[in-house]
Every structure is written in structure tokens, then in C-alpha cells.
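Next comes this protein.

***
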Amino acid sequence: MDMAAWPSIREFVIPVACIVVAAGLGGLLELFMQRRIATSNFVRRRAWMVVLIDALDAGLLFWATALGVHVALAVSTLPENVRRILDQSLLVLVCASVTVIAARFVGGGVRRLSRGPGQQIASGTLFASVSQGLVVVLGVLFTLSALGIAVTPLLTALGVGGLAVALALQPPLANLFSGLQLVASRQIRPGDYIALPSGQEGFVEDINWRSISIRESTNNLVVVPNLVLAQEIFINYRLPEPRVAVRVPLRVAYGSDLDFVEKLALEAVSMVGDDIHVQAASREAFVRVQEFADTTVNLSVGFFVKRAIDQERAKSEFLRCLYQLMRRHDVASPIGNPVLPNGRALAGRA
């Protein structure tokens, strides 16, 4: 082997070896963290450590490789200006990776708080997006400062141009602040069952910076911009408590025994309770006289169910049970007295 070529080969091999060794150690450390540390009971019992390990995914490998590249540049014989450019590029990449991992950690922590007991944060997605955006902005400012770029004049320029940017981004910003207002007021939260003026209703799946996703009972997803919902009158069936009242109208002919009709209705409600979980049917179910119409006395039967989504099913089961009681007591008749919602006649007892 030509000994004259050895210095040039050595200058190439040593930097490459530094990078390979550092990357290998980083990979082993990453593997050890995922296989041993992440699966230990000590970590699983601490939510913030779980979030941190999830955020560090591939971060240790990258940082170890970056350290190897830095050492390789230090021992290399590259020109000074080239090494300076490469060092600055490496610094930017490291700062970017730290920013990404910090944003993951903050966003994951916010989402975990939104799913925890008591829901300390009402909407994880919305606040996670905002907090991650703030972390990214701080990371960019820190990177510019590390590169020797004055941040204060840049902030001044951004402040002057912020008005123009705000005007250009008025719809997205309006949706963002409307979403923050809805969440901060706790008027709506993921898991709530709401009804919109347009007729759609369902469970709130998510609240992000732009819109609110609502899953209907048909398993369709309705997406409503935050600004639209903030300006609409909507019903939240979960506030102030999840249970809701179900009202079923009944019509009975004049001369019917209202006491007997009430007895049948309350008995039908108690039968529904075993299937739909009607709450306190014997104590809170009621029958009210609404009005005297031209040919009928209009009544209303009311009872409570645990969830708003059970309203239609509870109403259907109530009518089914009422019909069974009618047949059991032999009070049905093709002509004559109490009239049900479908127009069929019911004979009352005197």
C-alpha cells in the first residue's frame, strides 16, 4: 500500500468512523429506551414519563448522530469556512429536532390532560395545537439567536406586519379564537351530545383550531366551523347534567277515564325502564293534561333517560309497551275513545 496515500485515507476514515460509532451508540440507546425503559412499571405509572418517551421517538438516534458529525468536523481537515457552514447547518438541525420533540411533549401532555380524570383541559386537540405552535415559534426565535441573528428587530418588523397578516388570515383567526372562547367557557366539550339549529345532532368528537367534529347516530361526521357554532343557538344535552326528559304526546277522546289512561302510561314507563335505563321512573314519570282540543283531550307523558341519544329508542319502547298493556287490559277498539299518536282509538274505562 502506498504510504503516501495513508494520510488522505486516515482523514476520511476517522470522521466516518466517528459518525458510524455515534450513530450505533444512539441506535442502541434508542432501542434500550423503547424495549426496557418504556415498558417498565416505573415509567408506566408516571404519565409525564410516558409522554416524554413518546416524544423522544428517534430523537436520541438523531442527537447521537449529530454529535458524531460534530466530532467528525472537529477532527477533519476541511477548510475553516466549510466547517463553519456545516456546523451552523448542524446547529439548525439540532435546534429543529429539539423544537419538534418539545412540541410533541407539550402537545402529548395537553392531550393526556384532556383525557384524564375530570378532564383538566376541555379540548386536547385545540389547546395542543396552540401550545405546539407557541413552542415552534420559541424554537425558531432561539435558533435565530443561536445563529447570531438579532431577534429584536425581527420581532419589531413582525409586529408592524402583523396587522396585514391578521387581515389576510381573518377567517382562520376568527375560527381559532371562537374555538378558544367555546372551550374556555366550557359550553362544549368532547363527548357532549349537542343539537344544531340545522337539525344535525350527535356526540362532539373533537375540537381543533378550525372546526368542531360531530358524530351523528348514523355514524356520519358533521364538521362545523368554530365561528359558525359560536354564533348559533345550539343545545348541549350534557349540561347541566346528562339525563334528559322524553315527552310523548297522547290524545284521548272526551269522556275517557283519564286516571286509567295515566295508570297505563306510568306502567308502560316502568316497563321501559328495564331496557333503556329510565331513571327513577316510578318517582319522576308524569302525565300532564296539555289542552282541550276540538275532539280530544291532549296529554303529555314525560320521563327521564340517562343519555340524549336514547330519546328516540325510549319513545319507541314506551309506545310498544303501552300497546301491549292496551291489549292485555282489552281496552283497544276500532272506534271510540282515547286516541293514540298514530290516530288509533283507545276505549277508556268509566
About this structure: The chain has a mean pLDDT of 76. Residues 274 and 281 are 10 Å apart (CA to CA). The chain has twelve helices and nine strands.
